[in-house]
Amino acid sequence: MRITALAGGVGGARFLRGLLHHLESVSGPDTAPHDLTIVANTGDDITLFGLRVSPDIDTLLYTLGGGISEAQGWGRAGESHRVQSELAAYGAQPQWFGLGDLDFATHIVRSQWLGQGATLSEVTSRLASRWGLPDRGVRVMPMTDAPVETHVVVEDEQGQRAIHFQEWWVRHGATLPAQRFVVAGLDRAAPAPGVLEAIRDADVILLPPSNPVVSIGIILGIPGVRDALRGSRAPVVGVSPLIDGQPVRGHADACLAAIGVPSTSVAVAGLYEDFLDAWLIDPADAGIRLPRARVAIHQGPLLMRDVESAADIAGAALALALSNGERRAARPAREGAKRSPHRRGSRAAHEVGTVGRRSDCSLDAGEPHRPRVTLADRRPLWGL
């Protein structure tokens, strides 16, 4: 069975670890082998201390490879911070983004390989091999090999400015009201090799409970990805990242507010309506209806407290996909050109990164792995 998932960091990683646990627990001599392809968000990527950091990819690798810090949900287990402390002694900035010593090794080798001419896909494949993922039938690929970075337009006592998503998320805890999201480099990005094929050739497509705006929404903004999902014969099943309007983890509610979408499970599903077949929700959201997708209520809370609870949720999503696939198998492929009737939500997810004029987003030609964003003026732009 070929499974393709679109994923961000902590939530996506924990869900997919649960999925692997479920698949391995039900496998036997008569069970068909599974192949799991993960299309990872790289909109969170950032350059720190001259090193290229891919937070979502690294969280996926560490989690699936057994090296994650369980307490944090990100970073390495058994980590030390001697390098970061020494950088602070030198006055190096920024200090609000903590990098451990083991984590530094990942960023050093990634930056070295990129500097030697390898693509991000090639680098990610090498890193995945270090964590033994190919041996478990898992392939992790970036959504694009192009450098892409999400920035957040905020306005405070310093005026209107664009700050990197990581600064908004980590340093400010998403407490600065976001006016819009601007994705530098997305207008020049193309799907990484194998991304569209992984969607088109899948037997099942899963959307973990990752952030619908700045994780899955960014992936959907890569040209061709959304069309591939609409045209796929595979059932597409999503897991709600909200329980009774509250994020399972992180600041999805703040991100949804920035794009004018209510913080509800039904509104999030509306962002995927043009390709979504089924939506798994928490019992607290029972009673919602979707115009096109089937709604299923999980038997317990959509909380991934441990590997077993995550496996239970992932197993339910997979079973929902397989039951939905039986009905879809006889249908023709979905119309690739049909746009979701949720115009604002659909456009928001589809046009992320093409906001405003081209002058709003630009690549720094002197640093090929580091896009930068500039604000041309203060007129309203259509944001994510």
Provide keyphrases for this structure.
384 residues; alpha/beta; Rossmann fold; 2 domains; 7-stranded parallel β-sheet; 3-stranded antiparallel β-sheet; 13 helices; 34% helix; disordered C terminus
Structure description:
This protein is α/β, with parallel strands linked by helices and 384 residues long. The relative contact order is 0.15. The protein contains 13 helices and 16 strands. Helix 1 runs parallel beside helix 2, helix 1 (10-26) crosses helix 12 (307-328) and helix 4 packs antiparallel against helix 5. It has 2 domains: 2-145 and 189-328, Rossmann fold (3-Layer(aba) Sandwich); 149-187 and 344-373, no CATH class.
Quick take:
The chain has 384 residues and is of the alpha/beta class. The protein is 34% helix and 18% strand. The strands form five sheets. It has a seven-stranded parallel β-sheet.
CATH-level-2 architecture of the largest domain: 3-Layer(aba) Sandwich
Biggest pleated sheet: 7 strands, parallel
Integer tally of domains? 2
Helix content: 25-40%
Work out the number of β strands.
16
Distance between the termini: 34 Å
CATH topology name of the largest domain, in short, is Rossmann fold
Proportion of strand residues: 15-25%
Helix and strand arrangement:
Layout: E1 2-7, H1 10-26, E2 35-40, E3 46-48, E4 51-53, H2 55-65, H3 82-89, H4 101-115, H5 120-130, E5 138-142, E6 149-156, E7 159-164, H6 165-171, E8 178-184, H7 195-200, E9 204-207, H8 216-220, H9 225-231, E10 236-239, E11 242-243, E12 246-247, H10 252-258, H11 265-270, E13 278-281, E14 294-297, H12 307-328, H13 343-350, E15 361-363, E16 371-373
Parallel strand pairs: 1-2, 1-9, 2-5, 9-10, 10-13, 13-14
Antiparallel strand pairs: 3-4, 6-7, 6-8, 11-12, 15-16
Helix pairs in contact: 1-2, 1-12, 4-5
